[in-house]
Design brief:
Layout (H helix, E strand, L loop, with lengths): L10 H17 L1 H24 L12 H14 L3 E3 L3 H7 L5 E5 L7 H13 L4 H27 L2 H12 L2 H7 L5 H27 L18 H16 L3 H22 L5 H28 L1 H5 L12 H17 L22 E11 L2 E8 L4 H24 L5 H14 L19 H16 L6 H30 L2 E3 H5 L9
């Protein structure tokens, strides 16, 4: 008798065929190019749909839109933030006579974010809620694409980049902060743009540092590089972040330190004798000029409206407009340092990893019956809980890998270190102000780095080519299950992120912790 012919190839043979097919696809220039374009387009399109559909709801100023929308329109009409009179919020909704005077108002955030909001308002008018939120929605969508590009630079993997971008595309905190005209989503865009440019600079500069110039060998100090256009671009982007909110300064400092440290390690690999000194005191000042100079220029440019007019707050405190601007900044700094007013949604930074107190930025009650109960409409900054807690766990995992690599004195990949640098810049500084009134939604600037950490951790969980077949199969299935559940949780929470009217009991199902109400 002849042996029965198996209906399916053996597992090892299936793996071999799959690997060969994948290699053929990736090695085909046409197919590879299509995949490199198709993946980011799909992820960005998904983000756009979730952020732009029904963007005008609710048709009223929600939470701190009462400050930023009015300031934006004031900038557009006066060039600086003026003073608003009584019932200004209602006037914006009904387009009554807007009670705006030309008396300068004390405003504690730089103007760039509000100028961007004003650009959208210039299209639809002051009563158009889509116009209020257009800039935050578009740049929130672009942030998803930036996360994809950053992940692609860090890992070289289309799959990892797609996971990272997809996780941010369907995350609730990112969706909410893209659909409300607050400053934090705009801040996040410029932070990610600066981070991407830093990676581009590393890709161009590190090989030059590690490859000595045969014509001018300098084994003691190494070479100094002035021609670094991507570092200049990073300075402009991070300066724009500072021009949206001052917390962008922390990212500027963190990424500047990252540049110096990576320059030093590259010099050590190149055999430079005085590699720490060369990086800090030879290349360091040059890098400082290339990064901080453009950042300062971008920041000052955002104040052009205040500088060229005369009615802004503190504008007349000195004949020199730049000294007057310095006086204004001194007043802003004193405000931020002393800000400790209580707020029902205040959440100190130590609570953020635990997700104890998200912010309800809008609540609308529907008096009509909704089944057996009344309806309620809520917009809450609850992130996807699985993405959030998974991202926090992944960050701890990357930190463990970093410490283990440092102890073993082995090279650590940028995919492990870069998300931690971003998290350090966007989280650790807030721990220094435990008494200050701050909110959980500030963590929207952390979310891109959390999803980057999570995507890298999921890649390790899925396994590598060198792992045994059963290990890779189990890992890949686990990752697919995790991602599938994340998608389902996002679908479950989407009504709470967009202010849909739902039964009260259904809304209560979303309050997993007491502080989420």
């Amino acid at each position: 008798m002849t042996a029965p012919v198996p209906l399916l190839p053996a597992p090892e043979e299936r793996l071999t065929r799959y690997g060969a097919l994948r290699d053929r696809i990736l090695q085909d220039p046409g197919r590879g190019r299509m995949l490199r374009w198709f993946a980011p387009l799909v992820v960005t399109a998904l983000a756009a749909v979730l952020r732009l559909v029904n963007l005008g709801h609710p048709h009223q100023l929600a939470f701190d839109e009462t400050y930023y929308v009015k300031d934006a329109w004031s900038l557009w009409t006066l060039g600086y933030e003026g003073t608003w009179g009584k019932d200004a919020d209602e006037a914006f909704v009904t387009l009554q006579q807007l009670p705006l005077s030309d008396v300068g108002a004390f405003v504690v955030h730089p103007p760039l974010g509000k100028w961007l909001i004003a650009l959208g308002m210039s299209i639809g008018g002051p009563d158009n809620t889509v116009g209020w939120r257009l800039a935050t929605a578009l740049l929130g969508t672009a942030t998803v694409l930036l996360v994809y590009l950053v992940a692609r630079q860090l890992t070289g993997s289309i799959a990892v980049a797609t996971v990272a971008g997809g996780l941010l595309a369907i995350d609730g905190l990112s969706i909410v902060m893209s659909r409300i005209a607050l400053l934090d989503g705009l801040l996040t865009f410029f932070l990610l743009l600066g981070a991407l440019f830093i990676l581009y600079d590393r890709r161009k500069t590190i090989p030059l540092v590690e490859r000595p110039d045969p014509a001018a060998p300098d084994p003691m100090w190494g070479r100094v590089f002035w021609r670094r256009p991507w570092l200049v671009a990073a300075g402009l982007a991070l300066g724009a972040a500072c021009a949206v909110k001052w917390s962008g300064l922390y990212a500027l400092a963190a990424f500047g330190l990252y540049v110096v440290v990576t320059d030093a390690l590259a010099r050590r690999r190149a055999g430079v004798v005085l590699w720490p000194t060369a990086a800090a005191f030879q290349q360091g000042p040059v890098s400082f000029v290339l990064l901080v100079g453009p950042a300062l220029a971008a920041y000052l440019a955002s104040w052009t409206g205040w500088l060229v007019t005369e009615g802004g707050y503190a504008r007349q405190t000195d004949p020199n407009p730049f000294l007057a601007l310095w006086n204004y900044h001194d007043a802003i700094l004193k405000f931020h340092v002393g800000l400790s007013t209580g707020h029902p949604y205040a959440s100190p930074a130590w609570e953020w990893p635990l997700l104890l107190r998200p912010t309800a930025v809008w609540v609308g009650n529907d008096p009509d019956p909704c089944g057996v109960d009344r309806c309620i409409a809520v917009i809450s900054t609850i992130p996807n809980p699985l993405t959030w807690y998974g991202g926090v766990a992944a960050a701890l995992y990357l930190l463990y890998r970093l410490v283990r690599g440092a102890i073993a004195r082995t090279a650590v990949a940028p995919a492990l270190t870069f998300p931690l640098v971003g998290l350090a810049a966007t989280y650790l500084p807030w721990l220094m102000f435990p008494e200050r009134t701050i909110f959980q939604f500030y963590t929207v600037a952390m979310m891109p780095f959390l999803v980057l950490a999570l995507a890298v951790a999921l890649r390790d969980l899925a396994g590598r080519r060198s792992d045994p077949l059963h290990r890779r199969q189990a890992g890949e299935r686990t990752v697919m299950i995790i991602l599938g559940v994340v998608v389902l949780v996002s679908a479950f929470f989407y009504p709470v992120w967009t202010g849909m009217s739902v039964p009260y009991d259904f809304w209560m199902l979303h309050n997993w912790l007491p502080g989420w109400v």
